[in-house]
Design brief:
The chain has about 100 residues and is mostly helical. About 65% of the residues lie in helices and about 0% in strands. The chain contains three helices and no strands. The longest helix has about 35 residues. About 0% of the residues are buried.
């Protein structure tokens, strides 16, 4: 076989096998995800904690929510673990750079 001769039946067979493998894997993934969703629905209601939390917040009065917001803000302010920043910008101007060279 010379380098310029191509066996097109082998080319199309390999292409078909490759596309077939991709589709088989996609179908398997769909079935696996369906199984996982069924298992998750059997183990418990996922939406229940969110509904309970929303109901608990709705039962609070506006005054209680204000107190909760203030307490949360004070806690986050006192427990902040970020670096101390100086607030000073240190931008240095150069006459030329790689994008705009000066001759």
């Amino acid at each position: 076989m010379t380098p310029l001769q191509v066996n097109w039946s082998d080319v199309w067979a390999m292409t078909g096998i490759g596309i077939g493998i991709v589709f088989v894997i996609l179908i398997l993934l769909v079935y696996i995800l369906q199984i996982f969703s069924k298992v998750a629905n059997r183990s418990g209601n996922v939406a229940a904690p969110t509904q309970n939390a929303a109901k608990a917040v709705a039962d609070k009065s506006d005054d209680d929510l204000d107190k909760i917001a203030i307490a949360t803000a004070l806690y986050l302010y006192s427990e902040e673990s970020h670096d101390i920043e100086s607030g000073i910008l240190t931008i240095q101007h150069h006459d030329g750079n790689a994008w705009n060279p000066i001759d």
